[in-house]
Amino acid sequence: MRILIINPNSDPKMTEAIRKSAVGFAGERFEVVCEPTPGAPRFIETYEDDVAAAPGMLQLVKDFEQEVDAIVVACHGDPNIDAIKETTTKPVVGIGEASMKIATMLGHGFSVVTTAKRSIPPKEVQARKYHLQNLLVSVRAPDSDASDCENEQLFLDLARLAVEQDLAEVIVLGCAGLTGMDKLIQEKLGVPTLDGVVCALIIAEGLVRYGVSTSKVLGFNPEW
Amino acid sequence: MRILIINPNSDPKMTEAIRKSAVGFAGERFEVVCEPTPGAPRFIETYEDDVAAAPGMLQLVKDFEQEVDAIVVACHGDPNIDAIKETTTKPVVGIGEASMKIATMLGHGFSVVTTAKRSIPPKEVQARKYHLQNLLVSVRAPDSDASDCENEQLFLDLARLAVEQDLAEVIVLGCAGLTGMDKLIQEKLGVPTLDGVVCALIIAEGLVRYGVSTSKVLGFNPEW
Amino acid sequence: MRILIINPNSDPKMTEAIRKSAVGFAGERFEVVCEPTPGAPRFIETYEDDVAAAPGMLQLVKDFEQEVDAIVVACHGDPNIDAIKETTTKPVVGIGEASMKIATMLGHGFSVVTTAKRSIPPKEVQARKYHLQNLLVSVRAPDSDASDCENEQLFLDLARLAVEQDLAEVIVLGCAGLTGMDKLIQEKLGVPTLDGVVCALIIAEGLVRYGVSTSKVLGFNPEW
Amino acid sequence: MRILIINPNSDPKMTEAIRKSAVGFAGERFEVVCEPTPGAPRFIETYEDDVAAAPGMLQLVKDFEQEVDAIVVACHGDPNIDAIKETTTKPVVGIGEASMKIATMLGHGFSVVTTAKRSIPPKEVQARKYHLQNLLVSVRAPDSDASDCENEQLFLDLARLAVEQDLAEVIVLGCAGLTGMDKLIQEKLGVPTLDGVVCALIIAEGLVRYGVSTSKVLGFNPEW
Amino acid sequence: MRILIINPNSDPKMTEAIRKSAVGFAGERFEVVCEPTPGAPRFIETYEDDVAAAPGMLQLVKDFEQEVDAIVVACHGDPNIDAIKETTTKPVVGIGEASMKIATMLGHGFSVVTTAKRSIPPKEVQARKYHLQNLLVSVRAPDSDASDCENEQLFLDLARLAVEQDLAEVIVLGCAGLTGMDKLIQEKLGVPTLDGVVCALIIAEGLVRYGVSTSKVLGFNPEW
Amino acid sequence: MRILIINPNSDPKMTEAIRKSAVGFAGERFEVVCEPTPGAPRFIETYEDDVAAAPGMLQLVKDFEQEVDAIVVACHGDPNIDAIKETTTKPVVGIGEASMKIATMLGHGFSVVTTAKRSIPPKEVQARKYHLQNLLVSVRAPDSDASDCENEQLFLDLARLAVEQDLAEVIVLGCAGLTGMDKLIQEKLGVPTLDGVVCALIIAEGLVRYGVSTSKVLGFNPEW
Question: pTM (2 decimals)?
Answer without folding.
Answer: 0.97
